[in-house]
Amino acid sequence: MRERGLLIVFSGPSGVGKGTVRAKIFESDNNFEYSVSMTTRKQRPGEVDGKDYYFRTRDEFEEMIRNGQMLEYAEYVGNYYGTPLTYVNQTLDEGKDVFLEIEVQGALQVKEKVPDGVFVFLTPPDLEELRGRLVGRGTDSAEVIASRLEKAKEEIRLMSEYDYAVVNDEVDLAAKRVKKIIEAEHYRVDRVIERYVHMIDDVKV
Amino acid sequence: MRERGLLIVFSGPSGVGKGTVRAKIFESDNNFEYSVSMTTRKQRPGEVDGKDYYFRTRDEFEEMIRNGQMLEYAEYVGNYYGTPLTYVNQTLDEGKDVFLEIEVQGALQVKEKVPDGVFVFLTPPDLEELRGRLVGRGTDSAEVIASRLEKAKEEIRLMSEYDYAVVNDEVDLAAKRVKKIIEAEHYRVDRVIERYVHMIDDVKV
């Protein structure tokens, strides 16, 4: 029997740089598949439908929720974000790891359903730095930024629900840390013990 | 307050190549200190007292046991092996990681005393390969080799007590895997959360 892949859940406060770190992780060789999220938020310049996100209307999104086709979803600052279920399950069944980059609310839903996933929290070095990043992005109004920062404080408290915390001080370093965590998780005894203990009974010594 | 260092416990069946992999790990840059073990077994050609092991008589070793100066010790194929306590504690208190390369029996003693250590089991690809390695080493009689293989079977069953299992298929690869595990462990939420949650209360947003 082929071993099922690992589900890697990469999350953190809005504006911390999840997308940038994820892009850096996928620039280099790796053994995991990216699960594209679905959202009802507006497409930003340069974003590609089906690559950065699946961009959908509220009606379409809500129909998928009703049909049980979402692994997780969250409404965040007026928009839905979520992970379609089918691709994730198929890929894990093929023995490949799946990498989700999702919002904190959604990550906690996944943890309930898939407790043996690997949960990685991307944290800002501090909140002033996060504020600067949100302002610099230039896509949000002052009210939205204030709301995102309040949300970030709540979300950092939820770090305790995760397995790992990686600080996004430098994108390159943060990406390398996440890759090492994923590799190390493959050596956890509870994931590999079956592969080794058979040798005890197989061989006459 | 300075964070206490990580205690890394590297173990596995006799003959699996713990010493070789450990030497490879310490060839390259790293941020942890090696704790030299103490033994009553005979010094092999090329081994240096105080570097490979502290070589001691049975009387000296047993006095340290009586004085509570050993973190762990085990008697194995007629010889004592163990870890002097003082160096380990001082180094951890300085905030540095300590790397122990010890026998399986001793590793389980350390786990009782230091449950938040990182326990890494080095496993042979299979038992035939382990037999070949023991024979090739040329230091043990046929009887000792048979006894070591029986012991190895028992020890592989104890893999479940460890956090990670790394296969020693190639020394270079095994060493790299161990280094990644140690780095990843530094990002575990329960080890770092204190460092980050203070930001919530420190900053007015």
Descriptive overview:
Two copies of one chain form a homodimer. Chain A is an alpha/beta fold and 205 residues long. The first copy, chain A, has a domain at 7-35 and 96-202: Rossmann fold (3-Layer(aba) Sandwich), CATH 3.40.50. Chain A is 46% helix and 21% strand. In chain A, a hairpin with a 2-residue loop joins strand 5 and strand 6. In chain A, helix 1 (18-27) packs across helix 7. The longest helix of chain A is centred in the C-terminal third of the chain and has 16 residues, at 142-157. The mean pLDDT of chain A is 91. Chains A and B meet through strand 8, helix 5, helix 6, strand 9 and helix 7 of A and strand 8, helix 5, helix 6, strand 9 and helix 7 of B.
What does the largest sheet of chain A look like?
Answer: 5 strands, parallel
Mean of residue pLDDT values of chain A: 91
Characterize the overall form of chain A: globular
Based on helices, strands and strand pairing, what is the structural class of chain A?
A: alpha/beta
Spans of at least 5 consecutive residues with low confidence of chain A = none
Total DSSP helices of chain A: 8
Q: Largest chain interface and its two residue counts? A: A-B, 41 and 41 residues
CATH architecture of one domain in chain A: 3-Layer(aba) Sandwich
Could you estimate the helical fraction of the residues of chain A in percent? 40-55%
The name of the CATH superfamily of one domain in chain A reads P-loop containing nucleotide triphosphate hydrolases
Spatial ordering of strands, largest sheet of chain A: 2-7-1-8-9
CATH top level of one domain in chain A is: Alpha Beta
Termini separation of chain A (Å)?
27 Å
- Regarding quaternary structure, what we see is homodimer
Computed over alpha carbons, the radius of gyration of chain A is 18 Å
Order of helices and strands of chain A: EHEEEHEEHEHEHHEHH
> How many distinct beta strands of chain A?
9
CATH-assigned fold name of one domain in chain A: Rossmann fold
